[in-house]
Structures are given as C-alpha cells and as structure tokens.
C-alpha cells in the first residue's frame, strides 16, 4: 500500500476528484482518499512523477 500526502483538499468534491484521477492511472488500484489526514492510499505500481503530475493537473499538490 502506497500513501501520499496531498495539499489543498478541502471537501468531499476534492476527495472524489483525487480518487477519480488516481484510478485513471494505469497500475493503480484500491484508491482511498482521507480528507482529514490529507492523504491518498492505493495499491499497485505507478511512476511517482506521473502521480504528482496527475494530482497537480487537477489543482492539488503531492507533499514529499
């Protein structure tokens, strides 16, 4: 299970947007996004740079 911190989420619409975006990346499965913790968790393999770019494209930022 991979966990990433995401900055900028403030509502359930944000959670839905992040979930949908991550699910569209090939190789990522079982996406869960926690608004209170500001993080997303998923299984599978994906290029970390692609994950960051996907999140940035919808207006959020992955925190290293």
From TrEMBL:
It comes from Candidatus Desulfatifera sulfidica. The keyword Zinc-finger does not apply. InterPro entries: Heavy-metal-associated_CS, HMA_dom, HMA_dom_sf. GO terms for molecular function: metal ion binding. Pfam families: HMA (PF00403). This is Heavy-metal-associated domain-containing protein. It comes from the Bacteria. Residues 1-63 form the HMA domain. Keywords: Metal-binding.
């Amino acid at each position: 299970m991979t966990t990433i911190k995401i900055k900028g989420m403030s509502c359930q619409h944000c959670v839905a947007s992040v979930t949908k975006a991550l699910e569209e990346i090939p190789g990522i499965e079982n996406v869960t996004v926690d608004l209170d913790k500001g993080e997303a968790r998923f299984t599978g393999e994906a290029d970390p740079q692609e994950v960051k770019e996907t999140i940035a494209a919808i207006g959020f930022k992955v925190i290293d």
